[in-house]
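name: query_chain
kind: protein
chains: 1
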Amino acid sequence: MNSVAYFQRLAQYNAWANRRAYDACATLPRSELDAPRRAFFPSILRTLNHILVADRIWMSRLLGAPVAMPLDTILFDDFDALRPERVTQDQAIIDFIDVLTPEIIGSDLTYQSVTAGAYTMPRDLVLGHMFNHQTHHRGQLSNMILEAGAKPLEIDLIYYGRDHL
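structure:
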């Protein structure tokens, strides 16, 4: 599989996993979304916001119009307002990935870190990180959702592959 097809697959998987995570969150009482939890971003809603914040930061860098904001920014304090923004962001990621070429993916990206200095990294590593970062925090989210009384998320990449390949 070439690099473009690989990242296209990850973008589709990412949107699928986010839909499933948001569907699970939608079954919970609103109080559970804000309840304190043990995680990097200590609630379900704060974790969902962080994932969106990070995606917006990385996409702005990849698009050449960087925005900076604290990683714990609460973009939306209401789940019903946050959810369509996630869908929009996932589609923007898919649309961005769909126009990449192997040459773009093989190039470097220079960016300013939110918490440190400037870096130059291979673009394929940055793209891989963007998707891996979401997976990392969806893992935490899965545990919080389970603690809140919902069923465990079944969002492993292999489950996506079984349903979509």
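note: The longest strand covers residues 108-112.
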